[in-house]
Structures are given as structure tokens and as C-alpha cells.
Amino acid sequence: MNSPTRPSDRSECSGEAPASRRPSRLLLPALVWLGLCLVLPLFLMLAISFASRGTYGGVVWTLTLANYANVVDPLYVRIFARSVGLATLTTLLCLALGFPIAYYIARLPPRLQGIWLLLVMIPFWTNFLVRTYAWIFILRAEGLLNTVLAGLGLIGSPVDVLYSETAIVIGLVYGYLPFMILPLYAAVERLPVALVEAAWDLYASRWAVFWRVIVPLTKPGLVAGAILVFIPSVGAFITPDLMGGARTMMIGNLIQHEFLVARDWPFGSAIGLVLMASVLLGVVTYLRAEGPGARPAAGG
Amino acid sequence: MAEPSVELREVSKRHGDTLAVDRLSLTIRRGEFFSILGPSGSGKTTTLRMLAGFESPDAGDILIDGRSVRGVPPNRRPVNLVFQTYALFPHLTVAGNIAFGLEMRRVPRADIAARVQEALDMVRLQGKQDRLPAQLSGGEQQRVALARALVNRPAVLLLDEPLGALDQQLRADMQVELKTIQERVGLTFICVTHHQEEALTMSDRVAVMQQGRLLQVGSPRDIYEAPQSAFVAGFIGISNSLAGRIETVNGARCTVRAADLPSGFSVVARCPVGAGVGAQATVVLRPERIHLSADVQLNGYDNVLPARVSKAIYNGSETQYVLALSDRLSWQVRVPNIGNGQQRFQPGTPVFLRWHADEAVVLSE
Amino acid sequence: MVRRTPWLLSASVANLCFLYAPILVLILFSFNASRLSAAWQGFTLEWYRLLAEDEALRLSVWNSLLVALVSTLVATGLGVCAAIGLERHPFRGQKVVESAMLLPLVIPEIMMGVSLMLFFLLVKLPLSLITVTIGHAAFNLPIVLVIVRARLRKLDPSLEEAARDLGATPWQAFSRVTLPLLVPAMWGSVLLAFTISLDDFIVTFFTAGPGSTTLPLYVYSMVKSGVTPVINALSAILVVVSMTLIGASLALQRR
Fold first, then answer.
1. Residue range A71-299, CATH number
2. Which of B232, B261, B287 is the last residue in one of the domains?
3. Hey, of A1, A5, A6, A9, which one would you mutate to test binding to chain B, going by the most B CBs within 10 A of its CB?
4. Which chains pack against C, by 3+ Cβ pairs within 8 A?
5. Which of A2, A6, A15 has its CB closest to that of B16?
6. Non-local CB neighbours of C79 within 8 Å, separated by 6+ positions
7. In chain C, which residue's Cα lies nearest the Cα of A266?
């Protein structure tokens, strides 16, 4: 009887929410702005994706599925496959690199947590182009890596790392690693240490503690991190543009090429929508499948 | 008698599917310390929020100082609320918090300073006026919340679980202090709590609510000594009860026989008003009013029942016994630990319970 | 826990090295006297001097600042209003509107860039600094919304009730209690939005027209045309500026 019963006390007055069921007028300007700059353009793209290219670029309003048929051309399928493959690899590498540091930070005293998080964030807030350039500076044939390796006498002729899929993955991992670390940190931080200790106490090895307790309970963070890394990676433009070569084109480059070089807006739109639809579909399916299991730790 | 400070007339409030407050009528006198006691979900918080103006009744009317407050927004009501979470403005100093209500009502600046100082004195927070809430202890925050409400000299001061967030010791001190302050300022205090000891200690009168309904109103003594229902009895800490049937009535006394009692035994108790022979009745008995003894003699008591000790729990000031009266009936008895030579009963030993008829309460259904 | 896992510490430090080394190397070599080689050939400030003389760079910086300033103001105004509207006035279908508003955070940025470009071209709005600014406001709005809303949600709802109980009108309760408590979050989101706008490449790339080169576009064209120590010098400056802005933003959000 003495135990405070606040949660149900709250429910006692849960009916206080204003009865007005219409959105506030405060919402209107933002809705209009985003509607015009976000939703409408996407629908416009959808419409254009069923049209044809005019002779000098532009759009001829005919109803056709030709653009979507073109997407399954092996040439483009290969680009899609490469994009998904590189983005998946990037995501997995970010997970492997991000988990230890996220876990370490989450178990530090709160004051140190802030400092470490700041340390993780600072490079992230440096211009993406600058960070990409940094790796170009290091990896190119006359770059720092080769200079150092040659200086040490380890290699005779320069190693060609830049303009390859390896370079792209390095650039993407470097670019999006903090996207993985932050949600992972948040998830681990919410995971009570006592649960890990309880598992230990119940004879779990460290390996078992990790797989049976830590991973399941930090799944929301894992999922969030994976989504946050995968989406910009699969649609990346700068990294493959600057660090990849002609033979390592990704979807982002293809879209840019179709819009600005080939001036085939309808086909570019179709590619973009296929990309967006598959990403959203993948994310939604993933969240649905993982959803129920992902809940408990989010609340804890 | 002066007109009542607050009057609730048949007030009802629905939250979704549940009736949070069900035709509640209450009259609260001017200058009274009135507590509404009940478990969570009893509607006490909703009642308080309707008085403050954060919710409006679906039916019925609320009068403050004789005037209906229907449709009057919180900022125009002559009441102030001490929030359960205190709700101190984190960006304002202690003085800024206390002055807030006065500023809203455009009290002249010079008066504000004086009244803030006076309020600080009253809650013994002199010298802390420039602190921010985050720099205060829980007890100090509680007192700022109190001062912030009191400084407006409201017709009614509302308190929502005022001591709920404090630890045991501070809670006991503040109970006395709240009562003292209330007597000094002479305002009507309406306090909502689920803590029976708090309600009994501070209040002039207590109302017990359950599931939106008012069960009983009365002085703390009335509530404690003469609960009118099993729920009230249970809620204020009477754990021993015995359901049976009235067998004989002898003036103000009656005997109750119950299937749960050992055969041949019955209980003598005060006869409930209007109850006759054969009526259903429940005898409830406080754990501290039962005397234990090793022999069966009445020794001036009206009742004696045999039992066996199932547990004896020593907890410092008293020993708590769990006693089996029969297979189906188990009672608790608390015996103060008064020192050496006191008889102790080991688990498994037989024992006799004795009590005066007037100590038990009989509830007729 | 921490003491028992020294390898976690090593892994974390290695991770930080991975994050910092490229940037530090970049800054270090902005003082390298060699124009072509990545070998150290002595200290120089020559590349910074060249930057200072670059008229086109100066113009692009002004363009970027202008776009960032205006788009941040618009995004903050609309975002704060929307946050209050969403948090304080629940309505039917709110979930749908909320997800739609967060769309820019989950769709590939390049999609936002090209769809905006198509939109502007079809409504015959010439690509310019104005179109860039409109686009930046659109992707900054959800960011402001998320930050301000998180702060609003953390505020004890009984604070406004307390103000009302103490005689404040709804507007007074908002302006005297809620608004002051939102200010740090607002400043935090302003600085964040400003930085993101300043750094944006993709959306700008597709919505900028001739003569509306922003700083990232300029950097991109420099990198495209070859590695020179001048880019190192410019990068070094950008690193310091971003760090300052973000440091200020975090400090304000924490208050």
C-alpha cells in the first residue's frame, strides 16, 4: 500500500488530452513547405518515370513502362548489385568497428561518456567532401600511403588502392561509422549492467553473454545503426564519384549521369524510384520482422 | 455556520470507458484541512484536477466560496495547487518561482518582494531565494512549491500527494510542518493522498474514495475507529476480519458465529445499527488491539479464541505474530516489545487471543 | 567491467585513431612546402596565402553563408511551430504526418536532390541561390523538428499547468515558462541546421544554377580537378570552423 503507484495515477488523468482531433494550425506552414519540396517532387518523379525522353532532353508525356523495363538491363542490374553489395559490406564493417567502441563508451562514467561521444562526433561534423579528400590524399598513387610504404622500403612500385571498390568501402565506412556508433551506444547505455552480470553469474561465457544477452537486448540500436549506414551508402554519390573509377559506378552515379549527362529524366526517375522503393521496402520489411523482438529493450 | 469553502454537487467525470469520478458530493468547510484518501484509480487525483480547473466535470457542479466555477479556467480560479512533482520552473530562481503567481496578477513590485520574503520565512527557506530549483534538496523543493502556492493567499490550497516524493523521516517531519502552517495561515487545505497515516495525521476530516465513489467522510478518529465498510477498514490497515452471521442480539451487543471459527466459539461485539438476528456481518479487528496469552481465562475481556502461532516476526518496536485460528482463518497480531520478562510465543505453540467487544467493528452488509 | 576488458579500450582508441588520423594528416600536410609530393619538404603558409587571394572561393563562402543563414531561419521558424503543434495538439492521423515529416531523414539524399531539381525545372523556377535555399530549408526542417520536439517532450507537462494555476493565461504560460525552456534546444538546432546547410553537397549540387556556387560545390570542383595542397589548407580551415560550430551547438543543447 505504501508503494508509490504513479503510473496508474497518471492513467487516472489520462483523459486530459485536449479533445480537439484536428491538427494545430501551427503545423500548417511546415506541412506546406515539406509538401511542396518533398512529397510533390517525389510524385512528380513518379509521373515522369512513366513518360519518355524528349529529343533534346526534357519530358514527353506518354504513358510507358519502358523506363522500368530498361532498369532490368544486365548493365544496370550489375550497378544495383554492386551498390547493394558495397553498402552491405560497409554496414557490416561499421558494425564490427562500431560495437566495441559503442560498448566501451556506454560503460564509462557519465562524464567521460560525454567526452568520448564528442570525440566520435567531431570528425563526423567535418565536411564530407573534406573527409573524402583526406582519403584520396592518403590512398592515391602519389599519396601518403605509398610515400610512407616506399620510404620504408616495403614496396617497389606504388600500390593502387584509389579508384577501386576497396577505396569506396573505406570512404563509406569512414563517412558513416558514427551513424552506427551513436545508436549502438544509446542501446548499450540503456542495457542494465546487472543483466550482463546476471548472465555471467548464471554460467554464461563472455561469448554467450554477448550473443545471448547483449545482442538481443541492443537489437533496436543495431537495427537503427544498420539502417542509418545502409541508406546513405547504397545511394552514395560523392564517394564513388571521387574514389571509384569508371568501372565502379554505383546507383548514385548512374542517377546523376542520367539526369545531368544523358538528360534522360524519365529513366533517371525510374532508377531513383526503384532505389528508393527497394530501400524503403527493405527497411519496412526488416522492421516488421524484427519489430516485436526489438521492443522490450527500447522501453527498458 | 459560515458558507462552505468548497462544495461538490453530484460531480461525475468519465475517462474513456471508466467512470473516474462517480456522483461525488462533498462539502468542505472554511479553514479545514481536508484529505481525500484512496488507492490509485480511486478518482482522487481527477477530483483535485477538477477543483484546480485542469479538467471539467461531465456532470454536476463545483462551488468555490459559494460560486460555481464551471467554465472558469485555472488561471481565474481562487485555488492553487502544490503539484506532486512540484513542477517548479527550472529556469527561475526560488524567488522567481514564488513571485510568478503575484506577477501574473500584476501585484505591485514592492509588495511582491515583501510577500515573497514572507513566504520564504514561512517555509523556512530564508537565504535560498536566489538558488535554482535544481540546486535544492527534495524537501526544499517541496517547500518552494508550497510557498509558491501559499503566497497567492488562495481561497483553497490543493495538495497532490504532497509528501509522496520524500523519504520516510522527512515525510514524518513535513506532516507536522504542513499541519502547523495550515493552522497558522488558516486557509482551506485539500490534500490528495494514498497514504493513510499521512491523511490521519494532518487532517481535520478525511474522505475515503474507491473507484470514483465516496465511501466515507469523517474525522480521522471516525474513520479509524468506525470504518463503515470492509474496504475502508482494509485500506486504513485493519487486516483481521471474520465473516459470519449474527446469532443473538442483547441490547447493544451481539454474538456472531462464523464457519471459520473453531467449533463452539463465537464472538461478542457491538451490534451494528439496524441489524437483527440472522443478518450477515463481518467483524473486523485491529492487529494491535488483540492481547495474547497462554491461558484461556477471559480476565475481564469479552472474547477469547484459541489459535496456533504460525510465525513470529521481530521488527524492533514490536513483534508481529501470524496466527492460525483454523485451517481457513489466519489473523495478524502486533505486540509492542516492552522489555524483559515479556512473554514470547514460539511458532507452533498454542495461544489465546483476547479482546474487548468494543475494540472490534461489525460491518453489516 | 571496464577494467576487465582492456581490449575494449584498445579497440576504442584504435577506432578514434581511424577517425582522426586522416583529418590530422590532411591538416599537417596543408603546411607542407611540396606542391606535388606527399613527402614532407618543409613548413610553409603559401597555400593559405593562395586561398586568401582566391576571389571565386570568397564568393562561394558568401553564397554558402547566405544560404545557410536564410534556410536555417526558415527551418527553425517552421520547425519550432510544427514541433509545438505536433506535441501539444494531438490529432487523428498524426502518425502519418509525423512519418512524412521525417522522410528526408530516411530517403537517399540524392533522391531529394534530383526530385527537387525536376520540380524547380517544371515550375520554371530558375536554378539559383533561391532554389538552393528552399531545398536546404526542406531538409533542415525535420532536424529542427526532432530536436525541439525531444526537448518539449522532456518538459514536465505540469509546468505549464502550474503556470496556469498561478494565474497565467495559456499564452503567458507558454511564453514565460515553455519558451524560455526551449531556447537552448532552439539555439542548438539553429547551429546544427546552419552547419548541415553549410556542408551540404548533394542537394546543392542538383539545385544550384550558374553563378550560385557554394563552398562545397567549389571544393568539389577543386578535388575533381586534382589534388593540391591548397585543398588541404581549405580543408584545415573547414575542419576548425565545423568543430567550433558543433561544439557550440552541443554545449547549448546540453544546457
1. 1.10.3720.10
2. B232
3. A9
4. A, B
5. A15
6. A30, C140, C141, C142, C143, C144, C145, C148, C189
7. C118
Q: Closest by alpha carbon to B31, among B164, B144, B154?
A: B154
Residues of chain B with pLDDT under 50: none
Q: What is the ipTM of this complex?
A: 0.87
Shortest alpha-carbon distance between residue A17 and chain B (Å):
10
**A12 in B contact zone (CB under 8 Å):** yes
Listed in sequence order, the DSSP H helices in C34-90 are: 46-52, 55-88
- C72 CA to chain B: closest CA distance, Å? 26
Q: CB C84 to CB A24 under 8 A?
A: yes
Quickly state the pLDDT bin for A121 (edges 50, 70, 90): confident
Task: Select from A1, A4, A14 the Cβ nearest to the Cβ of B15.
Answer: A14
CA distance A61 to A174: 43
**Among the partner residues C156, C165, C172, nearest to B81 by beta-carbon distance:** C165
Pick from C128, C74, C136, C78: nearest CA to C104: C136
CATH code for position B345: 2.40.50.100
Interface of C with B in 130-159 (CB under 8 A): 156, 158-159
Q: Are residues B219 and B244 in the same domain?
A: no
Who contacts B117 (Cβ-Cβ below 8 Å, separation ≥6)? B129
- To probe the interface with C, which of B80, B82, B91 has the most C CB atoms within 10 Å? B91
Hey, are the CB atoms on C81 and A105 less than 8 Å from each other? no
Nearest of B332, B116, C202 to residue A129 by alpha carbon:
C202
Does B14 lie at the interface with A, CB-CB under 8 angstroms? yes
pLDDT of residue A6: 36
Task: Say if strands B6-15 and B18-28 run parallel, antiparallel, or are unpaired.
Answer: antiparallel
* Residue tagged 476530516 (cell numbers): B205
Query: Same domain, yes or no, for B227 and B284?
Result: no
Confidence grade of residue A241 (pLDDT, cut at 50, 70, 90): very high
Residue B53 lies in a domain: yes
Instruction: For residue A230, give the chain C residue with the closest CA.
Output: C108
Please check whether residues C62 and C169 belong to one and the same domain. Answer: yes
For residue C4, the model assigns a pLDDT of: 52
Q: Cβ atoms within 10 A of the Cβ of B241, count?
A: 18
Contact criterion met (CB < 8 Å) for C156 and B101: no
Per-residue pLDDT of chain C (255 residues; tens, 9 = 90+): 444 568 889 999 999 999 999 999 999 999 999 887 778 888 999 999 999 999 999 999 999 999 999 999 999 999 999 999 988 888 888 888 888 777 777 788 999 999 999 999 989 999 999 999 999 999 999 989 999 999 999 888 899 999 999 999 999 999 999 999 999 889 888 988 998 899 899 999 999 998 899 999 999 999 998 888 899 999 999 888 888 877 777 777 665
pLDDT at position A293 is 46
CB-CB neighbors (< 8 A) of B234 in chain A: none
Mean pLDDT in residue range A210-215 = 87
Report yes or no: B230 and B246 within 8 Å, Cβ to Cβ: no
- The pLDDT of residue A17 is 44
Using a CB-CB distance cutoff of 8 angstroms, which residues of chain B are in contact with residue C152? Answer: none
Cell 510524385 belongs to residue: A43
